[in-house]
């Protein structure tokens, strides 16, 4: 059986500077998966004089290193996790802040309007 991802809008911030790291830390505070600074060690790879880590649900209380260029995603349940830039680009596209009837900035995907089709009735290729 094959499946496709449901279209879900997520929030994300990219870690491209020390200032971004501090913004990510503030953005994730008060959640079960906060970002935090750790002492930088060479095995963490390149950094901005610090190592940014995100506590993740999958790590059983541990954390994952957020490397420069990585995105930190807020998932559908409010959890946070890092994502490599190539995977982020292949999986996500910018979404407009407006509604399907409103004005939008260029370069974003306009949200779909109301549909009379149920998800099982969409035009998916037959297997």
Explain what this protein looks like in three dimensions.
The N and C termini lie close together (9 Å). Strands 1-5-6 form a 3-stranded antiparallel beta sheet. A 3-stranded antiparallel beta sheet has the order 2-3-4. Mean pLDDT is 79; it is low at 115-127. It is an alpha+beta fold. 14% of the residues lie in helices and 20% in strands. It has a domain at 12-85. The chain contains 2 helices and 6 strands. The chain has helices at 18-28, 85-91, and strands spanning 11-14, 35-38, 51-55, 63-66, 71-74, 80-83. A hairpin with a 7-residue loop joins strand 3 (51-55) and strand 4. The relative contact order is 0.17.
Main beta-sheet strand count, sense and barrel state: 3 strands, antiparallel
Query: What is the average of the pLDDT values?
Result: 79
Task: Write down the Rg.
Answer: 18 Å
Strand order of the largest sheet: 1-5-6
First-last Cα distance:
9 Å
* Element-level helix/strand string: EHEEEEEH
Q: Quickly give the structural class.
A: alpha+beta
Helix content: 10-25%
**Low-pLDDT runs:** 115-127
- Strand composition percent: 15-25%
Number of strands: 6
Per the principal axes of the C-alpha atoms, what is the gross shape?
Answer: globular
* SS field, number of helical segments: 2
